[in-house]
Write a structure and sequence with these properties.
37% of the residues are buried. This protein has nine helices and ten strands. The strands form two sheets. Strands 2-3-6-4-7-8-9-10 form an eight-stranded mixed β-sheet, sandwiched between helices. Strands 1-5 form a two-stranded parallel sheet. By secondary structure, the protein is of the alpha/beta class. Helix content is 37%, strand content 20%. Helix 4 packs across helix 5.
Length: 262
């Protein structure tokens, strides 16, 4: 029986160690930034730096449309790379009569600082929203969040009054994602729960969800579940034969977005 007891203690120790690693390495697991040198030159867009804290500026690309724009799409990209990697995504959203602003998170691209908490993420997002609100009225602001960015877009829409909220390949929450990939890790260890499922019912603006039917990372069912939580005007647009990466480049997304922005 001693060997069985020792084996149980060994398994328990491994479990505790695993939970400890997950807790302290969450930032590395969730956020995968690619820093850029200050000298890097983008092929499109105006570079702006938005102050979000006393010693931290976020880098953003501002793609301006020709003529008089009807408003701006504030685009929150996914968890990898930087504005360099995601610029093609923003360009797919441009040319529809709206400007596009794409901020980088802390530590991504040319943005300063590092991500430390969910509260900090949301505070930074609000600072970006307040900054762009100097140039456009709230009824001219469309929030669009892709994958990880759906958390920031939903938070802002639940605490402000934008014209429209668009979510591409959104998740119910990071709690639900944890249950999908590592269900044995306790939920209370998550520092970034990103509860879209709790915030979407508070959104007063119209909401449109876009999700690939072959999304290999965030199941299509997440958008179906979220649609059922929305009290106001909501639409779910399926992207046929589209995976997670392809969703933001979808022709269907661009066509439907063109209709929303009229």
């Amino acid at each position: 029986m001693k060997w069985l007891k020792r084996f149980a203690i060994f398994i328990l120790a491994l479990y505790v160690l695993g939970c400890t690693v997950v807790y302290f390495q969450q930032e590395r697991m969730i956020f995968q930034p690619s820093p850029l040198p200050a000298s890097f030159e983008f092929w499109a867009g105006e570079e702006v730096f938005i102050p979000v804290a006393e010693d931290v500026d976020l880098h953003a690309l501002w793609l301006k449309t020709a003529g008089n724009p009807r408003g701006v799409v504030v685009y929150w990209h996914g968890n990898r790379g930087s504005n360099r990697r995601c610029l093609r995504q923003a360009e797919n959203l441009a040319g529809l009569g709206y400007d596009v602003l794409m901020p980088d998170y802390r530590g991504f691209g040319k943005s300063e600082g590092s991500i430390r908490s969910e509260q900090q993420l949301f505070a930074d997002a609000q600072q970006v929203y307040d900054w762009i609100n100097q140039y456009y009225k709230e009824e001219q602001i469309v929030l669009l969040g892709y994958s990880l960015g759906s958390g920031m877009a939903t938070y802002l829409a639940s605490n402000n009054a934008p014209r429209h909220l668009c979510l591409v390949a959104p998740y119910q929450s990071m709690v639900a994602m944890k249950e999908l990939f590592v269900p044995f890790i306790p939920s209370f260890l998550l520092k970034y729960p990103l509860r879209n499922d709790l915030r979407l019912p508070e959104v007063q603006a119209p909401v449109t969800l876009f999700h690939g039917t072959r999304d290999e990372l965030i199941p299509f069912g997440h958008s179906e579940y979220l649609q059922g939580l929305i009290k106001g005007q909501a639409q779910l647009v399926s992207l046929p034969n589209t995976g997670h990466r392809g969703a933001i480049f979808s022709d269907v997304l661009r066509r439907e977005l063109s209709s929303i922005l009229k």
